[in-house]
Amino acid sequence: MSRPDLNLLVTLDVLLAEGSVAKAARRLKLSPSAMSRALARLREATGDPLLVRAGRGLVPTPRAVELGAAVGRLVKEAEAVLRPAERLDLARLERSFTLRNSDGFVENFGPALLARASREAPGVQLRFVPKPDKDSGPMREGAVDLETGVIGNTTGPEVRSRALFRDRFVGVTRAGHPLSEGRVTAARFAAGRHILISRRGLDRGPVDDALELAGLTRTIATVVGGFAEALALARGSDLIATVPERYTGTLREGLFTFTLPVKLAPLTISLLWHPRLDADPAHRWLRGLVKEVCGGARNPGP
């Protein structure tokens, strides 16, 4: 079996991006006839028409759409391999990084992170996107450059990680809540009405397991998907929220925070990224920056 012409990957990437033989030819500095021949070879190699006529333009086939993300990633990785290593010049660096985090990260660490990045590399843009789950697909596909969170069962085995800080769960209520007066015992805590935080919509969590060991149960009044929602509800009602202490520091301002009367395992918040970015100088700088900013404040006690 003959080895495929890998140059066709670049051609396919440009064709899919432009959606036009003429535009792709101009971008690759080829004649329209040469680009048409390249498209014919791609169709032969893939066994699919890839781009078909629709009015005056071309539209991708389902197979072309399926190949699009993979081809773009392969071309970028190949370009990175063939690019000579250069000394990172932060003052001249122009790049956008996408960071995926649970709610609380931007509120707590975003201002300091943006200030440091702006001071050291003014041409860098940081894009913060929400983290609805622990799926590593967005990092694998290149949609996310850096992520923070707790490593879980759905975290890809190839993902690189670095611990940022340890955190612990605390209880939170509105100011003036009955629990804000006197000692918070397990019985008083369990007797209240609670907010359960579950991105998967579960009906119980680690707090319920800990209470069960003490022979207690609690009433879950509502289930939400994030810390900000839980704390907003706690702020405006008599409901009790259980959240990570450090991760929600800014979100908890003005609320009553107390040590849980049951023992929960501490959390390790980690920095996560795909191995293809491991040696990238700019990405290494960003990882170090996040580590410094998140490691600057005192960690909570055990």
Characterization of the model:
The protein has 10 helices and 12 strands. It is of the alpha/beta class and 302 residues long. The strands form 3 sheets. The protein has a 5-stranded mixed β-sheet with strand order 4-3-5-12-6, with helices on one face. A 5-stranded mixed β-sheet has the order 9-8-10-7-11. Helix 8 (206-213) links the parallel strand 8 (193-197) and strand 9. Helix 1 (7-18) packs across helix 2, helix 1 packs across helix 4 and helix 2 packs across helix 3 (32-46). The radius of gyration is 25 Å and the shape is elongated. Residues 297-302 have low confidence and may be disordered.
User: How many DSSP-defined strands?
Assistant: 12
Mean pLDDT: 90
Structural class by helix and strand composition: alpha/beta
* Weakly predicted, low-confidence segments: 297-302
Number of alpha- plus pi-helical segments: 10
Order of strands across the main sheet: 4-3-5-12-6
Overall helicity: 25-40%
Which geometry do the CA atoms define? Answer: elongated
Distance between the termini: 62 Å
Radius of gyration: 25 Å
H/E series, N to C? Answer: HHHEEHEHEHEEEHEHEHEEEH
The percentage of residues in β strands lies in 15-25%
Main sheet properties: 5 strands, mixed
In short:
With 302 residues, the protein is α/β, with parallel strands linked by helices. It has helices at residues 7-18, 21-27, 32-46, 62-82, 105-120, 137-141, 186-191, 206-213, 227-235, 281-294, and strands at 51-54, 57-60, 95-101, 124-130, 146-149, 160-167, 169-173, 193-197, 219-224, 240-244, 256-259, 267-273.
